[in-house]
Amino acid sequence: MNKILKSVFIPIKQNTHPGIEEDMSPKPIYDNKDYIATGKLKDKVAIITGGDSGIGRAVSVLYAKEGAKVAIVYLKEDVDAIKTKSEIENYGGECILIRSDIANPKNCVKIIKTVASEWGKINILVNNAAVQHQTKSLNHISNFQMERTFKINIFSMFYLTKAALKFLNKGDCIINTGSVVAYKGHKNLIDYSSTKGSIVTFTRSLALSLAEKGIRVNCVAPGPIWTPLTVSTFKGLKLGLFGKQTPLKRAGQPVEVAPAYLFLACDDSSYISGETIHINGGEIVNG
């Protein structure tokens, strides 16, 4: 891993957003082949939006290793989704793919019903899918872009969670993907940063609301991670330069983020709710 991170690579131009992992060079590292599973999620059913690639793929594979059945929700990246499903099945796991636009509330309800019908229950909801668009200023953000970003990044979490609550019980959990920009801001990602700030507050408020039911809600806030979303947002980005602003002087890999999602999904974190785990290369954000 270190050899890759110290090199400078120019990725293939991504014309599709939120990006295709199969077209990236180098490929993100999403699986720790030396990892020894202990069945922490045995018999659990997990839904992971954006589970086809990037952080979502790493989480999907790790969950499957730990015994969970995984439903991957993705927009249209069939090649990435099929590869992730194959990886899960190679480890002996079960996976279903759901191609859907989560900006539509009706689709979100359908997703939950599909998973519940397939496996009879839902234990873990990972709200991970997101889009972001680099713009020069607020004046360059169209109404359509702003509304679409909010619909996918935060509105979908309301839709999916509301539908999933019919199946979640004591001991189950919800994990939302935030971002370091929720705390730092980003001058070229104003609408995206705003949605991530909303996700932090959504997490805290929902955790309080569901505490009496024994359902935990937490958040993971990644910093610069090498994913298709990154490449399709920042054109001409070089991996050797990306993340250099962090104290660790490098970008993170999806495989370095996934363990936080496992921790928050299993009994190891049974006394944690309403919190955010920051995986950002050492940046102190005090949030």
Please outline the major beta sheet. 7 strands, parallel
Strand order of the largest sheet: 3-2-1-4-5-6-7
Order of helices and strands: HEHEHEHEHEHHEHHE
> What is the H level of CATH, i.e. the homologous superfamily?
NAD(P)-binding Rossmann-like Domain
Describe it for me?
The chain is 38% helix and 13% strand. The protein has a single domain (38-227, 255-279), classed as Rossmann fold (3-Layer(aba) Sandwich), CATH 3.40.50. The protein has 287 residues and is of the alpha/beta class. A seven-stranded parallel β-sheet has the order 3-2-1-4-5-6-7, with helices on both faces. 51% of the residues are buried. The protein has helices spanning 2-6, 54-65, 78-90, 105-119, 143-164, 181-184, 190-210, 228-233, 254-265, and strands at 45-49, 69-74, 95-99, 124-127, 173-177, 216-222, 276-279. Residues 1-5 have low confidence and may be disordered.
Give a quick precis of the structure.
The chain has 287 residues and is α/β, with parallel strands linked by helices. It has a single domain (38-227, 255-279), classed as NAD(P)-binding Rossmann-like Domain (Rossmann fold). The chain is built from 9 helices and 7 strands.
Features:
287 residues, alpha/beta, Rossmann fold, 7-stranded parallel sheet, 9 helices, 7 strands, 38% helix, disordered N terminus
Write the layout of secondary structure elements.
Elements: H1 2-6, E1 45-49, H2 54-65, E2 69-74, H3 78-90, E3 95-99, H4 105-119, E4 124-127, H5 143-164, E5 173-177, H6 181-184, H7 190-210, E6 216-222, H8 228-233, H9 254-265, E7 276-279
Parallel strand pairs: 1-2, 1-4, 2-3, 4-5, 5-6, 6-7
